[in-house]
Write a structure and sequence with these properties.
Largest sheet: 6 strands, mixed
CATH architecture of the largest domain: 3-Layer(aba) Sandwich
Shape: globular
Number of strands: 15
Radius of gyration: 17 Å
Strand order of the largest sheet: 2-1-3-6-14-15
Amino acid sequence: MGIDEAKKAASIKAVEMISDGMCVGLGTGSTVRFFVEGLVQRCLEGLKITAAASSDRTYAQALEGGIPLISDFKRFDITVDGADEIDGQKRMIKGGGGALLREKILASSSDQMVVIVDEHKCVNSLGRAKLPIEIARFGYLATASKLDLPGEFRMCEDNLYETDNGNYIFDAYLDSPVEDPQDMHLQLITIPGVLETGFFFNLNVTCIVGYEDGRVETL
């Protein structure tokens, strides 16, 4: 058993929560990839849903598997996504996969958010993972200078990484633990050019934790 088995175990449990007629938000990342695989199989078996994807990668996987996809939406019954970190209050850092802005749009438009993680993503306090910050391309260096945080722009080979929205991501290094992540988010989001941070709060979250021994815990 290993990390992949833990991710698969959590994903299988999440797939069981999807029922006919649901509109489902699809997150991004290695754990969500297993969830989409399971959802494709259920759709092949007759499950009737619609879905929207938070990234081009997830969209391509869902489309290839035959999941009916929509681009215009107002709300979702459920969004299933992963997390880089999640604490006991179900506050999260997300965005390691580069889709934080779209992920937050889906999550905030959902009646329920199901977060699927392996046991190593559960923390007492946020701050161990890097905090992704999505920044507009125009004036990006000026914007980054106002963050007052150590870090670096994410790279893709020799070029700056671009999100599916055509923006850049600054990965900030945090002092662990972050004493007040909500306050830090509010300070960052007021900087012109900062489009979104990887802090996720105030969502109706059910967390499914997969363990390397195959166990699954729902929190």
